[in-house]
Specification:
Length: 108
Amino acid sequence: MEIAFDTRELRKIAESSKNMTNRFGAGPADSLMILLSELRAAESIYELVAVELAFDTDTGRVVTVYTDHGAKVVLEPNHVSVPISDAGQVVWQQVYRIRILGIEGAGR
């Protein structure tokens, strides 16, 4: 998938393992770096393994991806025209561009 970041600070954190480790600690940083690599390689969020996906309950537009070590990434589709089902839900199987809204090292 193609990844964009909501802010420059998020991009700066995500693109440096040193920044991640300093901010979140070694275990969560490793999990987050692996998750970001998997997101880049995946065609859909459903290809991610060993994570828990939590969709917002209204439209499914925002997804929180939890890793081991309690780390999480919050993301949304980054399409000009987001694929939406007849029921008004995001069709995540068709989403290949995402925007990362937040990264956290531990806790839910």
